[in-house]
Automatic annotation (TrEMBL), chain A:
InterPro entries listed in its UniProt record: Methionine_synth_MetW, SAM-dependent_MTases_sf
Range of residues in the leader sequence: none
SUPFAM superfamilies to which the protein is assigned, alphabetical: S-adenosyl-L-methionine-dependent methyltransferases
UniProt xrefs under PANTHER family: METHYLTRANSFERASE TYPE 11, TRANS-ACONITATE 2-METHYLTRANSFERASE-RELATED
Superkingdom to which the source organism belongs: Bacteria
Pfam annotation, one family: MetW
Protein name: Methionine biosynthesis protein MetW
NCBIfam families given in the database record: metW
TrEMBL record, chain B:
Name by which UniProt lists this protein: Homoserine O-acetyltransferase
Quaternary structure, from the entry: Homodimer.
GO molecular function per UniProt: homoserine O-acetyltransferase activity
Annotated HAMAP family: MetX_acyltransf
Subcellular location field: Cytoplasm
Length: 213, 402
């Protein structure tokens, strides 16, 4: 069945989660938004309450879907690998895939679908090129585990991890335009524009990309 | 299970007949000069629609919620049933403070066209003869039922329904409403249903109809004129259908292989097992409140339902341009209308970028789960409906939803 099935719980929204705030900042007021892997609907709620967007969600866990719908959010049960094909081209102004692309079966195809159904695509993901990952593998010789990616290799839902450099390369391959890229360190602070790219890939713990075709 | 005593059977039958001609609910008669156009090509005139309402219609008539009942349901959603004396069929869902809150919404439920609780059906008087329609009643469709309901909404001066809700055949009506009257449906909750009746379901219906028609007391559909009643046939039809409403697990949990009032099997064909006794009771009691010809006509209407077929075979085309907010609900153990059927509708709605929610509820109660105590069902309906009401600008005790 699906890769997310290993994930133990619904994504709980920590209101201080900086990547969500960054995403919310990227979304235009009053736009039509699809949040894929919307968890308990926290981001959708922020977007519809504060940014007046027409928000929809897709969530794999039935528990998450039911919680969202009970709050009045428009959410369906589904997953990024299977269900995006049903949407028409340009169905949304923004399509958001937050901390989920690394858990999809075919990230490249998913990204292609995102770019098809959304005029803008926002993807946030953990950076596997972070120095902690590199040092754990290099010195301990074990699969890295961090507070951000705490699961053991045998039970992690994250089967397609990538570095910021990898992701940027995929965007280039698909001809996606990177309108904005924000890299956050372990404390949630944005790394400055002045920092060279290799250093961002080394010190960034997660990244948020705003893409368009 | 023993047969119902004759005197009691007669008195219950007279209650049933009284509801056909003089229902314990509101009724509106559309005269002969206001015929109902039917999908079969003909018209029906005059015709009547019996309905119940709960709550109060607000000044701008924006808080009306239409409940559509299933195959053997009726308009008595939330009040004592006039024939059986039992509580209404959806008292868990509809009432003051319930998910469909009658303190806030004006709830309407009609007896469907073809039914036997006051709306025009095969047991209604045929204006062309001295008797009732019987088998001369035209074959009706889900579309005809909904067209008749729309006429009632016109009569009540309700331009747009805040929500149309229904399970099973009620879900089919809900989809038909959303497809045919896009501007009149602000939101829709189709539960445990499909956009077309599956071949397996048509097959089950055919078994039921054949059981009725094989009963000599059916009299080629003219049992009313002959003062007879195809009790056995209709009871068997109900027994077969009832199995499809439950899941294997639910039946096993309820009855297992337990014996009925005996310690050992009797090596005969009496109801040795509790499950047999239960089914026999379901069959026998059904006959007291339902008309056999109505059963034939309404099952046929479900068989004919195929929303995509009316739109070049593409289901999404049925919903092109819709602004309706949808919430589809299915149940994991429902094998009559499995989740995949709901998911097909969700995909069609996604294809037209409609506003849609979809919840699958985990339960072992089978298709009937929509009528039973399912807290997740209640949370979903109340959350969705409150959000729809808030969008529609309706304020009330529960408005806002969060």
């Amino acid at each position: 069945m699906n890769v997310h099935a290993a994930s133990p719980a619904v994504r709980k929204t920590d209101p201080s989660r900086i990547d969500l705030l960054l995403i919310a900042e990227m979304v235009t007021r009053g736009s039509r938004v699809l949040d894929i892997g919307c968890g308990d609907g926290g981001l959708l709620r922020i977007l519809s309450d504060k940014h007046d967007v027409d928000g929809r969600g897709i969530e794999l866990s039935q528990q998450g879907v039911n919680a969202c719908v009970a709050q009045g959010l428009s959410v369906i049960q589904g997953d990024a690998d299977r269900d995006l094909i049903y949407y028409p081209d340009d169905a949304f102004d923004f399509v958001i895939l937050s901390q989920t692309i690394q858990a999809t079966r075919k990230p490249k195809e998913v990204l292609e679908q995102l770019l098809r159904i959304g005029r803008h695509v926002i993807v946030s993901f953990p950076n596997f090129g972070h120095w902690r990952m590199r040092t754990q593998l290099l010195f301990k010789g074990t699969m890295p585990r961090t507070s951000n990616l705490p699961d053991s290799w045998y039970e992690t839902p994250n089967i397609h991890l990538c570095s910021i450099k990898d992701f940027a390369a995929l965007c280039a391959e698909l001809g996606a335009k990177v309108e904005r890229a924000e890299v956050l360190n372990a404390y949630g602070y944005r790394l400055g524009f002045t920092m060279p790219f290799f250093a961002q890939n080394l010190f960034g713990e997660q990244a948020v990309f705003l893409l368009s075709r | 299970m023993s047969e119902t005593p004759k005197a009691e059977a007669f008195s219950e039958n007279s209650l049933r007949l009284a509801e056909i001609s003089n229902p314990s609910s509101e009724i509106v008669h559309f005269p002969a000069d206001q015929p109902l156009q039917l999908d079969c090509g003909g018209t029906l005139a005059p015709f009547s629609i019996a309905y119940k309402t709960y709550g109060t219609l607000n000044a701008d008539k924006s808080n009306a919620v239409l409940i559509c009942h299933a195959l053997t349901g009726d308009q008595h959603v939330a009040n004592e049933h006039p024939i059986t004396g039992k509580p209404g069929w959806w008292t868990t869902m509809v009432g003051p403070g319930k998910p469909v809150d009658t303190d806030k919404y004006f709830v309407i439920c009609t007896n469907v066209l073809g039914g036997c609780m006051g709306s025009t059906g095969p047991s209604s008087p045929n204006p062309d003869t001295d008797g009732v329609y019987g088998p001369d009643f035209p074959v009706i469709t889900i579309g005809d039922m909904v067209r008749a309901q729309a006429r009632l909404m016109d009569h009540l001066g309700i331009a747009q329904l805040l929500c149309v809700i229904g399970g099973s055949m009620g879900g089919m009506q809900t989809l038909e409403w959303a497809a045919k009257y896009k501007d009149r449906v602000f939101s829709a909750i189709p539960i445990a249903c499909a956009a077309r009746h599956s071949s397996q379901n048509i097959a089950f219906h055919e078994v039921g109809r054949q059981a009725v028609m094989a009963d000599p007391d059916w009299c080629q559909g003219r049992y009313d004129d002959e003062k007879k009643l195809p009790r056995k046939g209709l009871a068997v039809a109900r027994m077969a259908a009832h199995i499809t409403y439950l899941s294997d697990q639910a039946l096993y949990r309820k009855f297992g292989r337990n014996l009925q009032d005996r310690d050992a099997v009797t090596f005969g064909f009496d109801a040795d097992f509790q499950v047999e006794s239960y089914l026999r009771h379901q069959g026998v009691s059904f006959v007291d409140r339902f008309d056999a010809n109505s059963y034939l006509y309404i099952t046929r209407a479900m068989d004919y339902f195929d929303l995509a077929a009316d739109h070049d075979g593409v289901l999404a085309n049925a919903f092109t341009g819709t602004k309706t907010r949808f919430c589809l609900i299915s149940f994991t153990s429902d094998w009559l209308f499995p989740t995949e059927e709901s998911r097909e509708i969700v995909h069609a709605l996604n294809a037209v970028a409609a506003n849609v929610s979809f919840v699958e509820i985990e339960t072992d109660k089978g298709h009937d789960a929509f009528l039973l105590h399912e807290p997740e069902l209640f949370d979903t309906v109340s959350g969705f409906l409150n959000a729809a009401a808030a969008k529609r600008g309706i304020v009330g005790d529960n408005a806002g939803g969060r």
